[in-house]
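Troubleshooting: if your tokenizer reports a length mismatch, compare your output against this known-good record of 455 residues.
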Amino acid sequence: MRVLVVDNDIVHARTMGEGLSRLGHDVTVVGSGGEGARRIEQETFDIVVTDLMMTDIGGLEILARAKKASPETEVIVVTGHGTIPSAVSAMQQGAFNYLQKPLDLGHLRTAVEKAAESTRLRRQNLELNRRLDEKFGFEGVVGSSPQMLGLIERLKRIAPTDATVLIQGETGTGKELVAQAIHQNSPRKNKPFVALNCAALSENILESELFGHVRGAFTDASSDRVGKFEYANGGTLFLDEVGDMPMATQIKLLRVLESGEITRVGSNTPVRVNVRILSATNRNLEEAIAGGGFRSDLYHRLKVVTIGIPPLRDRSGDIPLLIEHFVKQFAKRHAKTIKGVSLAARTKLGSFPWPGNVRQLRNVIESMVVVDCDETLDVDDLPLELEPATPAATPVQPDGSAGIASLVGRPLEEVERIFITETLKLTGGNREQAAELLGIGERTLYRKIKEYQLS
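Known-good structure output:
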């Protein structure tokens, strides 16, 4: 820790400084309040130890300036004129501790170590939040396609609100990641994020998981248990596969959404909860409503805002970016050095239809990183599931048709423009790789891009 000691009595200040230096701290000692104020304006300190009564600038002014310059700085006030009012005033203005002279060096060291521990914990929390932002914030929703840029922009508008959100998408598209991003960028980010898969549990167990139970509510209920709603109080509850929730549980969930109260299984006492509900499904809930499998009133309560996540096959332009993201993530996790991904492997990955969406791509990249032995991911690292991969996707035409036959009869320039455009998409805009795939020189490709006005 960087520690500043401020005291008119320079001998006393140096004694305190030497005692704190022995604990391993980087200590600066000054002999006046004015010099202390100047140092605070010019440098950053983790802890300030200041005398209360000084001839020019007093300890409370030092406290105020330190907090203004850096609210995280902890300030310990030391005085030989200790009174209850001065102690109360110092603590009210944000002092970490208040010590009286004659000063016991052991007491000072203990106070500084407690202040240092407080600073360390705060930094750990900030680092944890930074990692959560990186993993679950908008940065974690990877993609540069128009669909994903639109999705991220929508998430930014939704996150700060308290609206219930229904997230729709195929299995593996990242519905829970989107829910985490909403929570992590909301005012509730420092409260719990609790996820529950509604399809994985029977009706009785699901109700106990959601609402909790009291002792004796059913066989094996040997003690009271808090449910997900109570555990997530003040935060966010994510209900995954909500379309598979039993009808009886749907009725109870609707009642909670309308009243803001839950009742534990086996109890008659309501408990007030403040929870934001995010839900997700890969089912068409309107079809489920028509078939009698889902309540219309619950559907409309859950879908105040609806988010649709496109499948990976509809945003294949994001595949190169996702590959880079997952290679970096898993190389770090498995302590592997990966220098790159071969063009052949990128082509193979870009042509695969990915029925399991981003989750499947993520698992494939992790497998490749784990089995790689030459620091370059190549086709020999691909798992068997990609062996029967379909040939490279045929470019889609402006009129929506696809296939070689649809190109017959078109002007050669138009066909060339289509193939250059699709190849650039496949390589994520990498012109060197695109030129290699097309079998032309890079200068020729640059000229064609300019000629056809391609971005």
